[in-house]
């Protein structure tokens, strides 16, 4: 997927989160381990959100690999430490397709 298509999916994801009561704190946070697409806050819980898009749900969610999730988790810890945060947090995914946006809570088990 091109960076431009990724940016469009992230923009749609931010609109979705905003409409559902989240406050967007940061986009595209980078560490040496990887990137977090969106960092948002809702009800005193920090959400590290990975955005995946595709023509359909299966193709988008298929790109959510164990390696990608591991990098998301490590980068989340870096963000917490860098900002001296002591909040509850979760790692989530937003799946963006042409027909829908689906929020998946807690993608780590």
Spatially, the strands of the biggest sheet line up as 1-2-3-4-5
So, CATH architecture? 3-Layer(aba) Sandwich
The helix-strand sequence is HEEEHHEE
Q: Specify the helix fraction band.
A: 25-40%
Per the principal axes of the C-alpha atoms, what is the gross shape? globular
**Count of separate DSSP helical elements:** 3
Q: How many strands, what sense, and barrel or not for the largest sheet? A: 5 strands, mixed
Q: Span between N and C termini?
A: 27 Å
Radius of gyration: 13 Å
Summarize the topology.
Elements: H1 3-19, E1 23-30, E2 35-42, E3 45-53, H2 57-61, H3 66-82, E4 88-96, E5 101-104
Parallel strand pairs: 3-4
Antiparallel strand pairs: 1-2, 2-3, 4-5
Architecture overview:
With 109 residues, the chain is α+β, with helices and mostly antiparallel strands. It has helices spanning 3-19, 57-61, 66-82; strands at residues 23-30, 35-42, 45-53, 88-96, 101-104. A 5-stranded mixed β-sheet has the order 1-2-3-4-5, sandwiched between helices. A hairpin with a 4-residue loop joins strand 4 and strand 5. The model has no long low-confidence stretch (mean pLDDT 92).
């Amino acid at each position: 997927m091109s960076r431009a298509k990724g940016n469009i999916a992230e923009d749609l994801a931010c609109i979705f989160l905003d409409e559902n009561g989240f406050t967007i704190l940061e986009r595209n946070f980078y560490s040496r381990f990887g990137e977090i697409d969106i960092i948002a806050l809702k009800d005193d819980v920090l959400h590290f959100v990975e955005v995946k898009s595709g023509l359909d749900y299966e193709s988008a969610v298929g790109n959510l690999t164990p390696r990608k999730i591991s990098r998301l988790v490590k980068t989340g810890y870096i963000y917490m430490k860098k900002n001296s945060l002591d909040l509850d947090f979760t790692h989530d995914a937003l799946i963006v397709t042409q027909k829908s946006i689906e929020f998946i809570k807690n993608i780590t088990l």
